Sequence to fold (472 residues):
Amino acid sequence: MKLGHLADEGYKDWKNISRCLSLHETSKDHIDCMTSWIELERRLRKKKTIDENIQVAINKERGHWKQVLKRIIAVVQRIAKNNLPLRGDNEKLYVENNGIFLQLIEMIAEFDPIMEEHLRHVQERSIHYTYLGPKIQNELIQMLAAEVRSLIVAKINHAKYFTVILDCTPDASHEEQMFFVIRCVDDSENAIAIEEFWIGFLKVNETSGLGLFTELKNILNNLELDIDNIRGQGYDNGSNMKGKHKGVQSRLLEINPRAFYTPCGCHSLNLTLCDMVKCCPKAMSFFGVIQCIYLLFSSSTKRWKIFKDHVQGLTVKPLSQTRWESHVDSVKPIKDQTSKIRDALIDLANISDDSKIKSEAEGLTSFELENFEFMFGMVIWYKLLYEINIVSKFLQAENMDIDIVIRQLKGLISSVQEFTESGFDQALIEAEHIASEMGIEPIFREKRIIRRKRQFDEINSEDVTQSPKESF
Fold:
């Protein structure tokens, strides 16, 4: 039996195998096979095989698609970085309102030959996959988000200990969503700094303490973050979050007693201001007038033009519904430009054909802007909101330091105490100055005293009467 048939038929002459192997190594068949193998190895190393042309075409096609995807990813990345929508009313190339994504692709094609060639194939329908549709856009956004999230998680794992911050708000589709923020020490750069990383929005169906805590545990498990490494938790003052027995903070403390809970300082300050205003009818009336002035001018382009003709400085602004300390931005334009805004209201009342608008403008002029009590309250509220807004900005700073905040709060308390002692007279002087510039008499208007009917067994004593100034 020939040794060449060993693989097919086997070999059994083991006594003569050495001689047969020597004969086989010098045979023509073995030399031809070894020559072919060495030649193939050399061609494979130099990529000179029989399918060289096919491989060149494949590599060229691969390189082309790689360059196309690099440009598409860059476009998606820039649009997402600026929080802009990708798609428009149409998803076809070179049509109106086809969205920012396709518009940028078309612009790149004007200067880039690779993208120009790609769009030419798309227009000619010579390729089936274009990588320009909404599906690939969403996939690229998800891939980019996953990459960013993985880098954030790596930093958090490197820091080991972290703080969780949660808050809920309804979105435009009236569904409850909870944003998830993690705060940790980032020492990856040269300077060590405290960083806050927004992880994402979590859709929640159950807003109770148990439901929100379950969502928190699920996202931590998905990110492979250990709940035992939490060293802080910060929420607002809602009962489902700060609840002593069934809130999120208490449920987390049951698992991890070292997760110290700190309520949101800005939210606490905001609630304090809300309670201050609700317990004072004059304050509620004052801010109602501020909002009415804004709505009266902003509800019509013609009325807004009248306002701009008289007021060239700061424009009136609406009252914020969530951040009370920002009311200072609504009070400041009226305080600094009271006479000009009064002139705009008078002009509006004179030229308006709408009886309702005319009545509102005259009422705001006569009973509010020309009322010394309104001016006095405006001065007081501006001073108060200005000081509180400074403290609120410190509380919202990323590099907030507890010592600085304590100093700011102490300064705010001392300012309030100083104002209660001597601020009334100072504000009165400032209000009188504004009134004199507007030609308004700086007096507090007399109001009719409503006397309660006495019962027959009540002591007939004289009521203690206060002057309008003392009452204010």
Notes: Residues 402-438 form the longest helix (37 residues).
